UniProtKB/TrEMBL annotation:
It comes from the Bacteria. Belongs to the transposase mutator family. One of its GO terms (molecular function) is DNA binding. This is Mutator family transposase. GO terms for biological process: DNA transposition. Keywords: DNA recombination, DNA-binding, Transposition. Required for the transposition of the insertion element. The lineage of its organism: Bacteria, Pseudomonadati, Thermodesulfobacteriota, Thermodesulfobacteria, Thermodesulfobacteriales.
Amino acid sequence: MDYLLLLLSSCKHWSTYRGNDSRDRWRNREVEEEYFALYVDATFLSVRRGGVSKEPVYVVVRLTCEGRREILGFLVLQ
């Protein structure tokens, strides 16, 4: 994923996450193989690249058999 977005309640600019060890640990974490459901959806957010434009952010969330939701990833395509 070239553009991993961490959408937190206290959002920070993406550049603050570049080179961050916690981001690398999250991307390389072990993911359980069993899950109840897998959701793939997109939402349009304003993305700044020279100018500001609305671009789709694809979100992948899995639901475990225990009912826990886990974000597997975000992706913004150019």
